[in-house]
Amino acid sequence: MNKWIANSVCRWSVVVGVAILAGAAVIKWDAAKMPAAQSYPPAPAPLPSPNARDFYTRAGTMLMGPIDYVDFKQPPVPSGATQKQKDDPTSGFHVFTEAELDKIAEENQPAIRVLHDGMRYPYAQVECRSFRATFSYLATDRRMARCLRIIGKTEEAHGDWAEAASRYIDCMKLGGDLPHNGNIFALLVGIACDAIGRRALDPVIGHLDSRDARTDALRIAAIDADAVRASQTLKEQLWETQGSLLEIFRHKNWRKQLIAIATDQGDATNMPVPPSALVGGISTLRDQLALNAESAKTAYETYTGYMESCIAIAALPWPAQLDTDWPGAPRSPINNILVPEYSRAVYRQVATVALNRILETQLALHAYNLDHGTYPASLEALVPAYLPAVPKDPFSKNSLLRYKAKSNGRSYLLYSIGPDAIDNGGSPMEDDAYPQGKFLALYDSHIKGDIVAGVNH
Hints:
The protein is 52% helix and 2% strand. α2 (52-61) packs antiparallel against α5 and α2 (52-61) packs across α6 (136-157). It has helices spanning 2-31, 52-61, 83-87, 98-107, 109-118, 136-157, 161-177, 184-201, 210-225, 230-249, 254-262, 285-293, 296-314, 318-322, 333-338, 343-372, and strands at residues 402-405, 412-416, 451-452. Residues 12-30 and 265-286 have low confidence and may be disordered. It is globular, with a radius of gyration of 28 Å. It is an all-alpha fold. Strands 1-2-3 form a 3-stranded antiparallel sheet, with helices on one face. A hairpin with a 6-residue loop joins β1 (402-405) and β2 (412-416). The chain is built from 16 helices and 3 strands. 39% of the residues are buried. The protein has a domain at 232-345.
């Protein structure tokens, strides 16, 4: 009996051992699979010549002065701040005088002239196909937007409202250009630059004459017509990451390199991708073993499928997006490292379009009122003299912005139905976390209510 048990154990040990070896061989074979060539991203598109991007980059290198430290909210200076800190423009405690702001504006005029030269040409940045690429110019572009705001504020202080408005629209133009051929970071920086200009422009509208208001309305309409949809940005992000993965997969020890970066272990200086390119991590031994078993082909196809689902949702009208669930993060060790969540960025792009269309309509209404002494009965009266077309509401399926002229003809209600896709009759988005009537519609898609001109920003 004991001999029979011993023989049985021996036989089962052999079977289990063979199964383990076979399983290991299958895993090793599967892990060696590479993506199919027909699924590779397209080659980068040729760039226009001249290209506005070249001018923007050159203008950015010309910026001067403590631009990043100017805060027009001017928070109270702490009582413990020393005089040296108060006098230092870079301390964060300095209150800038009108003369100091004038100096910043004046010394940056050469950079602004180069920027304006570039705005005459099409914009496109190099389509990225590598994690090695850097996007340092995006930080400089945001700094340029801050500089434009400073110049606009100095123009306001000197009573030149038309020039102030032009500088703020320069911010919006810069922000609208950045997503062309760009990834998700270019989209978000573009949204931020746009918001800097739009918020500054809103209180200036009432100071403009009819000609300037109409010119500015048409300029914003042109920026809107050239806007890049979030679905295209996600497509660029897909191609960028596909190219980057293919670059990584050419390295023999690419899994080891990914693990070292994701777990902050070892020297990453010779890695094919910088740690900043990775958004997730590998936290357990189980994750590491799963990563070792995952093939490049599986990881690549999983990422591609996830992104294609996101792109399809982002291309839908907003109400259809609300009825569609965004895909969950892929159950894939490599994709856990690479994949962020995109729905918030898509919302911010749609909200930016809505806010810009409201602003261009406000400008057109102001010009119409100055010319006719009253606001129009409908927005159709603005076409074609003040706007090329009545702006559509991007939060609706295919409807126009909502508009109601008050009975006395001296005021109006203008709004988008907002992210809940429900017409609340012009009741604005509000939240207890924000001062009454000052909710920033750009940041939260879950608040009920409409995006109302003059209320939400």
